[in-house]
Every structure is written in C-alpha cells, then in structure tokens.
Design a protein that fits this description.
Length: 973
C-alpha cells in the first residue's frame, strides 16, 4: 500500500499523510473510540475528492469525511482514509438576501458564518455548544441542533440543497423536487437514478409505510436521529399528499457521511433576532423539581430551556475561566434551568419572567430566580456550553462517559423517563450527570464509569442496552443530535425494528455498493464496546515526573482532554487558545493533538523512557506554552506543563540541545555578560557580528537580540535614596521581585515601577533572591527550575503576608509563584508555596487592590485625555487578569483603554526568535495584533505588560509599546 499511497500523494493538489504520528492523531475524535486509519488527506478541491473516491474503489478501502466539532459517537473513527476538509473547503460561496439563503462549503464554521451574515441582518439558527469551531458539513452530517432548537430546529430544517459526489464519482445536487422532477430522476439510468428508484419503491410500499410510522420515534420528538431519516421522507410529496416536496437533503442530514461526499450546502437563514432577551436562571432543590418546572416554563413559550445539574456546577468551580461565570449561582442548587425570554424591551421581558416565577412558586417549584441581561448572558451561556469539556476535568479514571448521553423523548414524558432512567442507574450503583436541552426532551445523561477496567467495559454495554430498551418503551430516539456513529449503530434494529433496519441496509448498499463512504456507521456497526480508546484491564505504568499532578498522574492529566476541540476555534472567535492552530489550521498543531499524542505514547510505549518518542517532539514543537489551555479549555489541560514535562523526559534520553541550554540559562548568561554590556550590545547590534551570533544560537536573522542595560536594577535600587527610611510613614511595605528580564534588560521599566510605588506612598523592599526560572520552565529544564523554585519559596515564605506582598512588572516571572511553583517545589515546601502563591501579584493587581482599598486615588494622577490600546500577556489572560490591567490604566481620569482582541502575540519568550519558528510567530502576530497596531492613530499609546510582547510589536510594526507602569508613572501629578 505504501507505493499506492505515494502515487496518490503525487496526484493530489492537497496533502496526504500516512506516517504513524498523523494516523495516531486522527485515530480518535471526541468519543470513546479509537482505530488507526490508513491515511489522512487534506483535499484542496473537488478533483482531489474524485481522486480519493477512485483510489478507495480500486484499493478496497474507505473514505471517512471529517470537519470539526460534531463527532461524539465515533462517526469519524475508522480504518480507511480520513478526509479532513476543514482546512481548504472553507469558502462562503454565495448569499441571497431576498430569498434568505447562503451557499457554503462544508468546512465553514457555524459562528463565523453568522459573523459573515450579520451585515445582511441574517442568521443561521442551529447552534451546537461547539459552535465556535463546529463546521456546517459536520452539522449536516450529524443533523445537529443545539440549545435553541425549540425555535430553530435542526440542520435538517435549514438544508435546502446539497451538492455531493456519489460513490461512483458522479456529481449530484439534492434539492426539493416537484412530482415531475422526481419522476424524471427516477427514469435516469445511472446511480443517481437508482437511488431515486429505490426510495420510490421503499416508500410507496404500504407495509413499509406502516412499519416506519409505527416503529420510528414519535413524530412529536423534534430531535430524532435514529438511522436514516426515511420517516421524514415518507411525510413528503409524492408519498403523503399535501406535504412539502420530496428532498433527499432530509436523508443526507444525519447520514454521517455514509451515503455521499458533500462538497457544497445551501442553507436557509433567518432574520437576525432584534428583540432583547433575558435569561431566567431558576434554582431548584432537586432534579425532579427542575423537570416538573420545565413543563411549566414551556407553557410560557421560552426561546430556550436548558438544564445544568449540581455535578456540572461543581465542575465549574475548579476551572479558571468558568469559575468567573458562576456569578448568578446562589448556594448549592441541585439543578438550574436557564430559560430565555425575549420582548420588545426590558420592561416586557421583566413582565414575562415575573409570570413564570409566579407560576413556578404557585406549584412550589424553584427557590431563586435571578434574571441575567445584556453582556452577562454570554457568561451564562459560556458556563452551559463548557459542560462537555468540564466533565473531563475530573481527576482519576472514573469519568462521565458518552454512552446514553443523547437520548430524546417527548418533553411530556421527560420527568417519567428520567425517573425510570435514574432507577436503572441506581441498580448499578451509578450516578449520571444531567444537563442540556430540557425544552426539547433531550438531556445529556452521562453515567460515571471507568472504561479502563473489564468491569467498566462490560458496564458500558449493559447500560447502553438497558437504556435503549427504556427509550424504546417511550418510543423515543436513542440519538437526539449526536448521531448513531459507532456508539448507537448496533441498537438501531431494536429501536426501529428489523424490518426497517433492513430498509436502511438496502439504502446504504444502493447508494454505496462497495462501502467506500464511512462504513461501520449506522448500519453494520461493530460492537459498541469494541475499538475503544482504552483497552480494558491494561496495566498503567508508573511514570516518574518532576512536576506534581494533584490527585492524578501525568497520563491522567493528558487524558482530561476529551477531544471536544475547543482549541480549534480561530482568531475570529477571540481568546488565545490555540495560537499555532489559528495560524496553520492543522490538526497537528492543536492542543488536542498534543494531548492525544501524549496519551498514545505514554499508554503504548515499549521504551524504558515513555517520553523518548520523536513523534511527541514533533507535535509539541509549535506549542508556545501560552497557558491558554489551562483556562480556556473546559477540561483544564495544562499543555505548557505537559510540554515542559515531556521535554525534560526527552532530554533525559537525548541530552539538552545547545540552544535550549543557553536560552534556559539566559538569566545566568545575561548576568555573566552584564559587566561588559557595552561590548555585548555592540556585537549583537552590529549587522555582521549580530548575524553570526544569531546563526550560532539558531535565531532568525530578522530578530533583534535584546540589549543589556549598563547597570542592573538591583544595583540602582541599592544606591538610590529610600524615601521611607526616615520618619516618613509608608501606606504599606511591598517586596519587589527583581526578575532576570527587568534586572538586566528592562531596567528603566523597573525603575519606573519602583518610583511609581514610592510616589504613591509605598515602601519598596528588595531582598536577594533567585531568578524566577521562567526560561528554564519554557525549555523543559525542570530540575534546574525546581532548585530556583525551592530557593524563592524559602526566601519569601516568612516575609509575605496579607499586608506585605510580592510584586513584579514581568507577568511571566511573578506568576510562576502562583502556577508552576506549587507543582514543582519539594514536598516539605508545598504548604508554604501554596500559602504565598496568592500573595505574589503582578504590579497591576497590586495597584488595583490598593485602589479598591482607598489607598490610591485618581486625584494622584493628571486628568488629561489619553487613548491606550492594550495587548495582554498570555499568562495574564490565562489567570483572568486583563480586566484589572485595563482598570488600572483608567485610574487617571480621562484615560481610556481599548483591549486589542488578540490572542498570543506570537513571540512567547524565545519561540519567535528561533529561526524555524520565526515565520509562524509573525503569522500569529498578523492575525489580529499587528493590523490593529498599524491602524491606530499617532497619538494613541500601545500598552503591553510582557517583555516579549513589546519586542514582537516592535519587530512586527515598528511601534514602541509601553509597560503600564511607564504610562502610570508619566501620569503622576
């Protein structure tokens, strides 16, 4: 097969990969399944797809279509060629305002489609919780809907036309057909004609009609994705008089890429909603009360009614990002229903929700009824949407698993169904997480099971079987929106009967007689507890690490990634994660890929050192260690920590590269050079000698190596006057952390920071201490970093308290106390490290704390106008500190700050200096940061707390940016 794949690769305009690394990365999705594909293709155009179809037929293999954000049941896992259209099939082709439709390629992201449609006052309604990376092709293939399906329905209701390639390579267009057009299709003597002839034969048969109407899920259940949607097609003309025209799009939606390969989709779009709305977040003492309350809420015609149970809410407490979104949660509710109501104005919204509250209280339901309006609604929805990822953020091997998480019943049946459901789980001594779409009778129910054990594997199947029978009892749908895939396919005969299942198999065999399109999904599915990520009963090896992983192992931390793909959002959706993917659009460069490759190698490695795999190194290469994943990923996977751990392990087998050793010890190297700073600066600043230095270090010739100051900050401080050494009383004393970058390179910024604090009335203290170890951490020299962490905790453990804190101007260095140190120091120092961690602050945090305490006021600053553009340091963003930086810069009256909606600047310490990373570094900067800075007015200041960010802005735009303390110092009266 190697020869055939090589030939195919030469023929394709796009890319084809069949190395083990790429095959491993595509062996899983956001489900529990794993199977190694033959290869991975990134087709560039329709001709590539035709070549792939031809190859699959000739070589008796298969094609597995893949986009992003919609596969939770193993739909894109298989042994054929995974065809990822997310990179190149991303065009919005046409929009028609008057007819309210848009035509797109399958790789268009749902939220970005709506960004495009907004100027036209149009809106594509179905909204998955993954909408900022979910692609339209996957939404159609899965028939996705989301929280607002009560109003907008599913993708099926919006899919007007589909252009696709059939299994013989012929191109077809599926759309609504008149009787004569349908009849004409049936007379064609080709594969397209055969599929029309077959569906006419099936749906014209009276016995088939009876079987379909009696055995498919209740028509009142709007969320139903059980098998192929022949029940929907039956209710169209010419099979049911007076109904809508026949359209094969109904069958394509939810077919999971098993019938044809979609190349274009024409979607109906709605007018953009204009009425304001509010979220009534009703707290309940029990899940049963919430389900009863849901029926009352629905009588008042909400736009949405979504459930979160106490388990989900508990998970939000430990996530940096989501803990901030809990502002509306009061106490410890057993469940919360989020009901959205709109109105022409806020007064009408208040009147509507008042009626809902009164009705619920009259029935003895609910105890707290906060109404959330305006921009705060986004926080509530972000909390709800984080549910899937949050469930993986649980230490240990017992996880809430997707097994019966997508069942849907008639909403009137929901309370009884959930009661029966919970009774079944009680029999197994299990608890399920309950969340999601209460309005439409579908809750995502995830029992907590350990799939690594034989018992857990067996339980996985037993629960699925028993719940399938329960769903059948209520004539519900085993899949409401997540699809059948590998998880539910084998239960379709039970759900719709053997007669109807045979009809589905006949359809598949007619459309795809050689089985080249995504086989093993919907029909002829392997056992649902086979081909799992985890081999039951497999012994997990003990892996020695430098970092501490509280309540888990390094492998379990990597396993927190459930594949939900939050790291695949683009810069248009905001946030920082994941900068390398935003630039390359390659799956290999996602946080998910890094977690997957670590999990694979740490689980299956036969080497004494499981980190000794070049595949991990290659996938980790473009990780900028920005820390965004620690906060933005609902699963809280700290990839920067994992990368550093891997690098240390890899060095143990291969030694430390010269450049990594130099960069890691940049603090001591700079200290060595400082006495000859003038000579050093001359050498690195001269074009000829500077290029030689850069070449030796492996730096890009386009970069400027930072200069060393003629004096150190520490020396300046020791020699300067101390304003509070006499009788003058300070507001407080504060320790200044003289980090290595500020001490040797950014001395002027350090001076301004110290003078600013002193002029504001604070006594600044500086004691001898170790370097921060930030560069060592970034290069994976963890044992060396550990020594520095131990020293610094020893030095400051008895000096810091609630009144005397530690501050620094460089975010990446001071935040090591709060982040890495607590997982790095020796065990006997752990308690001290944890105690002082919240006492180590960025200087902006400290100033803001003092401002709120009334010790600093706006009257200490000038009141002239100043416009400031602010770019945040990645680690400040990860800790949610950027709002504080903005507020601090606005302490002077009439100072106005606008946050640049940029993620990582692209420099990330030494990353952007390294010659092989220079281009990607600049590409990241060009996404948002550079264009925004270039467009600013001449009078607008640019603020950037991070040293590497300021260097990147200068190199990318020629604009000199300021540290916030420089701006504040200049603003002092």
């Amino acid at each position: 097969m190697e020869e055939q794949l090589t030939l195919l690769s030469e023929q394709l305009s796009g890319e084809l990969f069949w190395d083990e690394k790429m095959r491993l990365l595509y062996s899983t999705d956001a489900s529990a399944y794993r199977e190694m594909p033959l290869a991975v293709a990134y087709p560039k155009d329709k001709q590539d797809l035709l070549l792939l179809i031809k190859f699959a037929k000739e070589n008796k293999t298969s094609l597995i279509p893949r986009t992003a954000g919609t596969s939770l049941a193993g739909q894109v896992v298989g042994k054929g060629i995974v065809v990822d259209v997310s990179k190149y099939f991303t065009e919005i082709l046409e929009v028609n305002e008057s007819e309210s439709w848009v035509r797109v390629q399958p790789g268009v992201i749902r939220d970005e489609l709506n960004m495009f449609l907004k100027p036209y006052q149009l809106y594509f309604g179905p909204e998955t919780s993954t909408a900022n990376r979910a692609m339209v092709g996957g939404m159609v293939g899965n028939n996705s809907c989301g929280s607002n399906s009560l109003i907008y329905g599913s993708a099926r209701e919006h899919t007007l036309e589909v252009q696709a390639l059939l299994s013989d390579g012929s191109e077809v267009v599926f759309k609504a057909l008149s009787f004569d057009e349908f009849d004409s299709k049936c007379r064609q003597q080709d594969l397209e004609g055969k599929i029309y002839q077959q569906i006419r034969s099936i749906l014209s048969n009276f016995q088939n009609q009876v079987e379909i109407r009696e055995n498919f899920p209740k028509p009142s259940i709007h969320r139903r994705n059980t098998g192929y949607a022949v029940d929907m097609l039956l209710e169209t003309d010419p099979f049911t008089a007076g109904t809508e025209p026949f359209n094969f799009c109904k069958l394509i939606c939810g077919s999971e890429g098993t019938l044809a390969f979609i190349t274009e989709i024409k979607l109906h779009v709605n007018p953009l909603p204009i009425n304001p709305s509010g979220l009534l977040c009703i707290h309940f003492h029990s899940l049963e009360d919430a389900l009863k309350g849901n029926l009352i809420i629905l009588k008042h015609r909400p736009l949405v009614s979504e459930l979160m149970d106490h388990y989900i809410l508990e998970c939000t407490k430990n996530n940096l990002e989501q803990s901030k979104n809990r502002f509306f949660v009061d106490g410890e509710p057993a469940a919360i229903l989020i009901a959205e109501y709109d109105g022409k104005d806020q007064e009408e919204i208040l009147a509507r929700v008042k009626l809902v509250e009164e009705d619920l209280l009259a029935h003895g339901l609910g105890y707290h009824f906060p109404l959330v309006l305006g921009e705060d609604k986004k926080k509530v929805w972000n909390l709800r949407k984080a549910g899937l990822g949050l469930l993986s953020n649980v230490p240990g091997d017992d996880k809430p698993v997707a097994v019966i998480e997508d069942t849907a019943v008639d909403v009137e049946d929901l309370p009884s169904y959930i009661n029966d459901f919970d009774q079944i789980l009680k029999k197994y001594n299990l608890y399920a997480v309950h969340y999601a779409h209460a309005a439409t009778g579908e809750l995502h129910l995830r029992p907590i099971i350990n799939l690594k054990t034989e018992e857990g594997n067996k339980l996985f199947r037993e629960i699925a079987t028993e719940i399938a029978h329960l769903v059948k009892k209520y004539r519900g749908s085993l899949s409401g929106e997540h699809g059948d895939g590998r998880l539910r396919g084998e239960f379709i005969p039970l759900m719709i009967g053997d007669h109807n299942y045979k009809l589905l198999k006949d359809i598949k065999n007619t459309w795809d007689p050689q089985g080249i399109f995504n086989p093993g999904k919907i029909v002829d599915t392997p056992g649902m507890n086979t081909f799992l990520r985890y081999e039951p009963g497999q012994t997990e090896r003990q892996i020695k690490t430098v970092f501490r992983y509280p309540n888990q192992t390094v492998l379990q931390h990597a396993e927190q990634c459930n594949g939900s793909g939050d790291c695949r959002k683009t810069h248009l959706s905001g946030g920082t994660m994941c900068p390398s993917y935003m630039a390359t659009k390659n799956e290999k460069d996602t946080t998910r890929a890094r977690a997957n490759i670590l999990r694979e190698m740490l689980t299956h490695s036969d080497k004494a050192n499981p980190f000794d795999h070049v595949e991990i190194k290659e996938v980790m290469d473009l990780c900028l260690s920005c820390k965004a994943c620690k906060s933005e990923c609902p699963s809280s996977v700290d990839m920067a920590k994992l990368k550093a751990e891997f690098l240390q392990g890899y060095y143990d087998s291969h030694g430390v590269p010269f450049r990594s050793r130099i960069i890691g010890h940049v603090d001591s190297m700079t200290e060595l050079m400082q006495p000859i700073a003038g000579l050093y600066n001359l050498v690195v600043g001269n074009k000829f000698t500077g290029d030689i230095v850069k070449n030796i270090l492996g730096f890009s010739p386009n970069r400027n190596i930072p200069k060393i100051s003629s004096t150190t900050l520490r020396k300046w401080f020791q020699q300067k006057d101390k304003p509070f050494s006499g009788n003058k009383t300070a507001v407080k004393s504060v320790y200044f952390f003289c980090d290595e970058f500020t001490n040797f390179n950014d001395v002027e910024i350090g001076k301004k920071a110290i003078l600013l604090l002193e002029k504001l009335g604070y006594e600044v203290l500086m004691v001898p201490h170790a370097f921060s170890g930030r560069a060592l951490l970034s290069k994976g020299l963890l044992r060396d970093a550990k020594k520095l962490a131990n020293k610094n905790v020893e030095i400051f453990k008895n000096r810091l308290n609630a009144d005397t804190k530690l501050v620094s101007v460089e975010p990446s260095t001071i935040l090591t106390f709060r982040d890495e140190y607590v997982d790095l120091v020796d065990e006997h120092l752990l308690a001290d490290a944890e105690r002082i961690a919240p006492l180590a602050l960025t200087i902006e945090e400290y100033i803001w704390e003092e401002y709120l305490s009334g010790n600093i006021s706006s009257t200490q600053f000038v009141n002239q106008e100043e416009q400031i553009l602010l770019h945040g340091h990645c680690q400040q963003k990860a800790w949610g500190l950027m709002p504080i930086v903005s507020k601090v810069l606005e302490i002077p009256s009439n100072y106005k700050v606008k946050n640049i909606p940029s993620g990582c600047c692209g420099m990330a310490g030494s990353f952007g200096y390294e010659k092989e990373h220079y281009d990607i570094s600049m590409k990241i900067g060009e996404l948002v940061l550079f264009p925004t800075v270039r467009e600013k007015s001449d009078s607008t200041l640019v603020a950037a707390p991070g040293a590497s960010c300021r260097h990147q802005i200068m190199d990318g735009t020629g604009v000199a940016s300021k540290h916030p303390v420089e701006i504040l110092y200049k603003a002092l009266k």
